[in-house]
Protein backbone atom coordinates (compact mmCIF):
# COMPACT_ATOMS: atom_id res chain seq x y z
CA UNK A 1 0.00 0.00 0.00
CA UNK A 2 3.01 2.27 -0.14
CA UNK A 3 2.51 2.98 -3.83
CA UNK A 4 -0.52 5.25 -3.29
CA UNK A 5 -0.18 8.25 -5.57
CA UNK A 6 -0.61 11.73 -4.18
CA UNK A 7 -1.24 15.14 -5.72
CA UNK A 8 2.41 15.86 -5.02
CA UNK A 9 3.45 12.84 -7.10
CA UNK A 10 1.33 14.06 -9.99
CA UNK A 11 3.07 17.45 -9.90
CA UNK A 12 6.38 15.61 -9.86
CA UNK A 13 5.40 13.45 -12.85
CA UNK A 14 4.31 16.52 -14.79
CA UNK A 15 7.65 18.20 -13.97
CA UNK A 16 9.57 15.17 -15.21
CA UNK A 17 7.59 14.86 -18.41
CA UNK A 18 7.31 18.51 -19.35
CA UNK A 19 9.54 21.52 -18.99
CA UNK A 20 8.37 24.44 -16.86
CA UNK A 21 7.99 26.39 -20.07
CA UNK A 22 5.61 23.82 -21.55
CA UNK A 23 3.56 23.73 -18.34
CA UNK A 24 3.36 27.52 -18.25
CA UNK A 25 2.31 27.53 -21.90
CA UNK A 26 -0.55 25.11 -21.20
CA UNK A 27 -1.86 27.11 -18.24
CA UNK A 28 -1.38 30.47 -19.92
CA UNK A 29 -3.30 29.23 -22.95
CA UNK A 30 -6.24 28.09 -20.82
CA UNK A 31 -6.18 31.37 -18.89
CA UNK A 32 -6.10 33.38 -22.12
CA UNK A 33 -9.00 31.39 -23.57
CA UNK A 34 -11.08 31.98 -20.44
CA UNK A 35 -10.32 35.66 -20.60
CA UNK A 36 -11.15 35.94 -24.27
CA UNK A 37 -14.34 33.95 -24.00
CA UNK A 38 -15.84 35.52 -20.91
CA UNK A 39 -14.43 38.97 -20.41
CA UNK A 40 -13.80 40.18 -23.91
CA UNK A 41 -15.25 43.68 -23.84
CA UNK A 42 -14.71 44.73 -27.43
CA UNK A 43 -18.28 45.83 -28.23
CA UNK A 44 -18.85 43.86 -31.45
CA UNK A 45 -17.45 40.60 -30.10
CA UNK A 46 -19.09 41.16 -26.74
CA UNK A 47 -22.51 41.80 -28.25
CA UNK A 48 -22.23 38.88 -30.64
CA UNK A 49 -21.95 36.59 -27.63
CA UNK A 50 -24.99 38.20 -26.03
CA UNK A 51 -27.23 35.11 -26.06
CA UNK A 52 -24.39 32.86 -25.02
CA UNK A 53 -23.57 35.00 -22.00
CA UNK A 54 -27.22 34.94 -20.94
CA UNK A 55 -27.44 31.18 -21.44
CA UNK A 56 -24.41 30.40 -19.29
CA UNK A 57 -25.49 32.89 -16.63
CA UNK A 58 -22.66 35.40 -17.12
CA UNK A 59 -23.86 38.82 -18.28
CA UNK A 60 -22.95 42.43 -17.96
CA UNK A 61 -25.45 44.89 -19.31
CA UNK B 1 0.65 11.74 -19.21
CA UNK B 2 -0.51 15.33 -18.58
CA UNK B 3 -0.71 15.91 -22.32
CA UNK B 4 -2.70 12.65 -22.79
CA UNK B 5 -5.17 13.78 -20.15
CA UNK B 6 -5.43 17.22 -21.77
CA UNK B 7 -6.02 15.65 -25.17
CA UNK B 8 -8.85 13.48 -23.83
CA UNK B 9 -10.26 16.45 -21.92
CA UNK B 10 -10.36 18.63 -25.03
CA UNK B 11 -11.97 15.78 -27.01
CA UNK B 12 -14.57 15.30 -24.24
CA UNK B 13 -15.04 19.08 -24.37
CA UNK B 14 -15.65 18.98 -28.12
CA UNK B 15 -18.40 16.36 -27.67
CA UNK B 16 -19.98 18.22 -24.74
CA UNK B 17 -19.51 21.57 -26.51
CA UNK B 18 -21.28 20.35 -29.65
CA UNK B 19 -24.19 19.21 -27.50
CA UNK B 20 -24.21 22.58 -25.75
CA UNK B 21 -24.00 24.39 -29.10
CA UNK B 22 -27.06 22.42 -30.18
CA UNK B 23 -28.82 23.53 -27.00
CA UNK B 24 -27.83 27.14 -27.79
CA UNK B 25 -29.23 26.81 -31.30
CA UNK B 26 -32.44 24.96 -30.50
CA UNK B 27 -33.38 26.28 -27.06
CA UNK B 28 -31.38 29.24 -25.73
CA UNK B 29 -31.30 31.42 -28.87
CA UNK B 30 -35.06 31.24 -29.59
CA UNK B 31 -35.93 31.59 -25.90
CA UNK B 32 -33.69 34.64 -25.44
CA UNK B 33 -35.06 36.13 -28.64
CA UNK B 34 -38.57 35.77 -27.24
CA UNK B 35 -37.49 37.21 -23.89
CA UNK B 36 -35.93 40.22 -25.65
CA UNK B 37 -39.30 40.87 -27.29
CA UNK B 38 -41.07 40.62 -23.94
CA UNK B 39 -38.53 43.01 -22.39
CA UNK B 40 -38.88 45.48 -25.25
CA UNK B 41 -42.66 45.07 -25.43
CA UNK B 42 -43.06 45.95 -21.80
CA UNK B 43 -41.25 49.19 -22.45
CA UNK B 44 -43.97 50.29 -24.84
CA UNK B 45 -46.49 49.90 -22.11
CA UNK B 46 -49.92 48.54 -21.54
CA UNK B 47 -50.38 46.09 -24.43
CA UNK B 48 -47.59 43.86 -23.10
CA UNK B 49 -48.43 40.98 -20.82
CA UNK B 50 -46.31 42.49 -18.08
CA UNK B 51 -47.80 45.93 -18.67
CA UNK B 52 -48.51 46.83 -15.08
CA UNK B 53 -44.83 46.70 -14.15
CA UNK B 54 -43.76 48.47 -17.28
CA UNK B 55 -43.65 52.00 -15.96
CA UNK B 56 -41.29 51.13 -13.14
CA UNK B 57 -38.86 49.05 -15.17
CA UNK B 58 -39.42 50.43 -18.64
CA UNK B 59 -36.34 52.60 -18.80
CA UNK B 60 -34.02 49.80 -17.86
CA UNK B 61 -35.67 47.34 -20.21
CA UNK B 62 -35.12 49.93 -22.90
CA UNK B 63 -31.43 50.21 -22.12
CA UNK B 64 -30.97 46.46 -22.05
CA UNK B 65 -32.97 46.04 -25.24
CA UNK B 66 -30.93 48.58 -27.16
CA UNK B 67 -27.69 47.12 -25.93
CA UNK B 68 -28.24 43.93 -27.88
CA UNK B 69 -28.53 45.56 -31.27
CA UNK B 70 -24.94 46.61 -31.99
CA UNK B 71 -24.74 43.49 -34.20
CA UNK B 72 -27.44 41.68 -36.16
CA UNK B 73 -29.52 38.97 -34.56
CA UNK B 74 -28.19 36.37 -37.00
CA UNK B 75 -24.60 37.22 -36.01
CA UNK B 76 -25.49 37.03 -32.33
CA UNK B 77 -27.16 33.66 -32.84
CA UNK B 78 -24.25 32.20 -34.83
CA UNK B 79 -21.51 33.55 -32.55
CA UNK B 80 -23.43 32.37 -29.50
CA UNK B 81 -23.60 28.82 -30.88
CA UNK B 82 -19.88 28.92 -31.65
CA UNK B 83 -19.16 30.28 -28.17
CA UNK B 84 -21.16 27.40 -26.73
CA UNK B 85 -18.92 24.89 -28.50
CA UNK B 86 -15.78 26.76 -27.35
CA UNK B 87 -17.15 26.87 -23.81
CA UNK B 88 -17.39 23.07 -23.80
CA UNK B 89 -13.80 22.78 -25.08
CA UNK B 90 -12.58 25.22 -22.45
CA UNK B 91 -14.33 23.36 -19.64
CA UNK B 92 -13.10 20.01 -20.99
CA UNK B 93 -9.48 21.20 -21.13
CA UNK B 94 -9.58 22.84 -17.71
CA UNK B 95 -11.34 19.76 -16.32
CA UNK B 96 -8.62 17.43 -17.64
CA UNK B 97 -5.81 19.58 -16.21
CA UNK B 98 -7.51 19.70 -12.82
CA UNK B 99 -8.27 15.96 -12.98
CA UNK B 100 -4.66 15.12 -13.75
CA UNK B 101 -3.41 16.91 -10.67
CA UNK B 102 -6.25 16.18 -8.24
CA UNK B 103 -7.13 12.60 -9.23
CA UNK B 104 -5.21 11.10 -6.28
CA UNK B 105 -7.02 13.41 -3.85
CA UNK B 106 -10.56 12.83 -5.13
CA UNK B 107 -12.84 10.44 -3.26
CA UNK B 108 -14.49 7.44 -4.92
CA UNK B 109 -13.18 4.76 -7.23
CA UNK B 110 -12.74 4.82 -10.98
CA UNK B 111 -15.14 7.02 -12.87
CA UNK B 112 -16.85 8.29 -9.71
CA UNK B 113 -13.86 10.61 -9.33
CA UNK B 114 -14.63 12.34 -12.63
CA UNK B 115 -18.17 13.12 -11.49
CA UNK B 116 -16.94 14.40 -8.11
CA UNK B 117 -14.57 16.80 -9.90
CA UNK B 118 -17.32 17.84 -12.32
CA UNK B 119 -19.58 18.60 -9.35
CA UNK B 120 -16.82 20.65 -7.74
CA UNK B 121 -16.25 22.49 -11.01
CA UNK B 122 -19.94 23.23 -11.44
CA UNK B 123 -20.10 24.55 -7.86
CA UNK B 124 -17.05 26.78 -8.35
CA UNK B 125 -17.66 28.03 -11.89
CA UNK B 126 -21.41 28.51 -11.81
CA UNK B 127 -23.39 27.71 -8.67
CA UNK B 128 -21.41 29.77 -6.16
CA UNK B 129 -21.38 32.95 -8.31
CA UNK B 130 -25.10 32.48 -9.05
CA UNK B 131 -25.90 32.61 -5.34
CA UNK B 132 -24.92 36.29 -5.49
CA UNK B 133 -25.42 37.06 -9.20
CA UNK B 134 -28.26 34.86 -10.45
CA UNK B 135 -28.50 34.23 -14.22
CA UNK B 136 -29.72 37.46 -15.78
CA UNK B 137 -32.69 37.71 -18.12
CA UNK B 138 -33.03 40.35 -20.85
CA UNK B 139 -34.39 43.60 -19.48
CA UNK B 140 -33.13 42.90 -15.98
CA UNK B 141 -31.77 45.69 -13.90
CA UNK B 142 -28.48 45.18 -12.08
CA UNK B 143 -26.82 47.07 -9.26
CA UNK B 144 -23.13 48.12 -9.45
CA UNK B 145 -21.01 48.55 -12.57
CA UNK B 146 -19.92 45.62 -14.79
CA UNK B 147 -16.29 45.76 -13.62
CA UNK B 148 -17.33 45.32 -10.00
CA UNK B 149 -19.77 42.55 -10.90
CA UNK B 150 -17.07 40.71 -12.90
CA UNK B 151 -14.76 40.94 -9.89
CA UNK B 152 -17.56 39.71 -7.65
CA UNK B 153 -18.22 36.80 -10.01
CA UNK B 154 -14.53 35.85 -10.02
CA UNK B 155 -14.39 36.21 -6.23
CA UNK B 156 -17.38 33.90 -5.81
CA UNK B 157 -15.69 31.37 -8.13
CA UNK B 158 -12.74 31.35 -5.74
CA UNK B 159 -15.10 30.97 -2.76
CA UNK B 160 -16.86 28.10 -4.57
CA UNK B 161 -13.52 26.37 -5.21
CA UNK B 162 -12.56 26.68 -1.54
CA UNK B 163 -15.97 25.34 -0.45
CA UNK B 164 -15.69 22.38 -2.87
CA UNK B 165 -12.17 21.63 -1.63
CA UNK B 166 -13.34 21.86 1.99
CA UNK B 167 -16.24 19.56 1.24
CA UNK B 168 -14.02 16.92 -0.41
CA UNK B 169 -11.39 17.19 2.33
CA UNK B 170 -14.07 16.76 5.01
CA UNK B 171 -15.49 13.70 3.26
CA UNK B 172 -12.08 12.08 2.93
CA UNK B 173 -11.23 12.68 6.57
CA UNK B 174 -14.49 11.31 7.98
CA UNK B 175 -15.64 8.68 5.48
CA UNK B 176 -12.92 6.22 6.49
CA UNK B 177 -14.88 5.80 9.72
CA UNK B 178 -18.42 6.17 8.45
CA UNK B 179 -19.62 6.95 4.93
CA UNK B 180 -22.97 8.57 5.96
CA UNK B 181 -21.22 10.89 8.40
CA UNK B 182 -18.74 11.62 5.62
CA UNK B 183 -21.56 12.70 3.34
CA UNK B 184 -22.98 14.95 6.08
CA UNK B 185 -19.52 16.46 6.67
CA UNK B 186 -19.19 17.09 2.93
CA UNK B 187 -22.56 18.87 2.90
CA UNK B 188 -21.65 21.27 5.75
CA UNK B 189 -19.50 23.77 3.75
CA UNK B 190 -22.03 23.81 0.89
CA UNK B 191 -25.04 24.39 3.18
CA UNK B 192 -23.07 27.09 5.02
CA UNK B 193 -22.28 28.85 1.72
CA UNK B 194 -25.93 28.79 0.64
CA UNK B 195 -27.14 29.96 4.09
CA UNK B 196 -24.64 32.82 4.27
CA UNK B 197 -25.37 34.10 0.76
CA UNK B 198 -29.13 33.85 1.27
CA UNK B 199 -28.91 35.90 4.46
CA UNK B 200 -26.07 38.29 3.67
CA UNK B 201 -25.87 38.86 -0.09
CA UNK B 202 -27.60 42.00 -1.39
CA UNK B 203 -30.09 41.66 -4.25
CA UNK B 204 -28.04 42.65 -7.28
CA UNK B 205 -30.27 41.43 -10.11
CA UNK B 206 -33.79 42.88 -10.35
CA UNK B 207 -35.83 41.01 -12.94
CA UNK B 208 -37.59 44.12 -14.24
CA UNK B 209 -40.79 43.73 -16.24
CA UNK B 210 -40.25 40.06 -17.12
CA UNK B 211 -42.91 37.68 -15.74
CA UNK B 212 -41.49 35.91 -12.68
CA UNK B 213 -42.47 32.45 -14.01
CA UNK B 214 -40.52 33.04 -17.21
CA UNK B 215 -37.49 34.17 -15.21
CA UNK B 216 -37.74 31.09 -12.98
CA UNK B 217 -38.01 28.79 -16.02
CA UNK B 218 -35.04 30.48 -17.69
CA UNK B 219 -32.92 30.20 -14.55
CA UNK B 220 -33.88 26.57 -14.06
CA UNK B 221 -32.93 25.85 -17.66
CA UNK B 222 -29.60 27.67 -17.23
CA UNK B 223 -28.74 25.69 -14.09
CA UNK B 224 -29.75 22.36 -15.65
CA UNK B 225 -27.97 22.99 -18.95
CA UNK B 226 -24.72 23.90 -17.20
CA UNK B 227 -25.01 20.87 -14.91
CA UNK B 228 -25.62 18.69 -17.97
CA UNK B 229 -22.57 20.17 -19.68
CA UNK B 230 -20.35 19.29 -16.71
CA UNK B 231 -21.86 15.79 -16.48
CA UNK B 232 -21.26 15.27 -20.19
CA UNK B 233 -17.63 16.45 -19.92
CA UNK B 234 -17.04 14.07 -16.99
CA UNK B 235 -18.88 11.19 -18.66
CA UNK B 236 -17.05 11.53 -21.99
CA UNK B 237 -13.70 12.04 -20.25
CA UNK B 238 -14.22 8.90 -18.15
CA UNK B 239 -15.22 6.95 -21.25
CA UNK B 240 -12.13 8.16 -23.15
CA UNK B 241 -9.90 7.25 -20.20
CA UNK B 242 -11.34 3.73 -20.10
CA UNK B 243 -11.03 3.41 -23.88
CA UNK B 244 -7.38 4.49 -23.69
CA UNK B 245 -6.79 1.79 -21.11
CA UNK B 246 -6.09 4.17 -18.22
CA UNK B 247 -7.12 2.53 -14.98
CA UNK B 248 -7.38 4.12 -11.55
CA UNK B 249 -4.30 3.99 -9.33
CA UNK B 250 -6.11 1.75 -6.83
CA UNK B 251 -6.74 -0.96 -9.44
CA UNK B 252 -3.19 -0.80 -10.74
CA UNK B 253 -1.98 -1.24 -7.17
CA UNK B 254 -4.22 -4.27 -6.67
CA UNK B 255 -2.72 -5.79 -9.81
CA UNK B 256 0.81 -5.16 -8.60
CA UNK B 257 0.03 -6.80 -5.28
CA UNK B 258 -1.64 -9.87 -6.81
CA UNK B 259 0.70 -10.46 -9.75
CA UNK B 260 3.44 -13.02 -9.15
TrEMBL record, chain A:
It comes from the Archaea. The chain crosses the membrane at residues 20-40. It holds the Pfam family CbtB. Keywords: Membrane, Transmembrane, Transmembrane helix. This is CbtB-domain containing protein.
Automatic annotation (TrEMBL), chain B:
It comes from the Archaea. Residues 43-67 are annotated as: Disordered. It holds the Pfam family CbtA. InterPro entries: CbtA_put (IPR012666). The chain crosses the membrane at residues 9-28, 84-102, 114-132, 152-171, 183-205, 217-240. Keywords: Membrane, Transmembrane, Transmembrane helix. This is Cobalamin cluster protein. It comes from Natrinema altunense (strain JCM 12890 / CGMCC 1.3731 / AJ2).
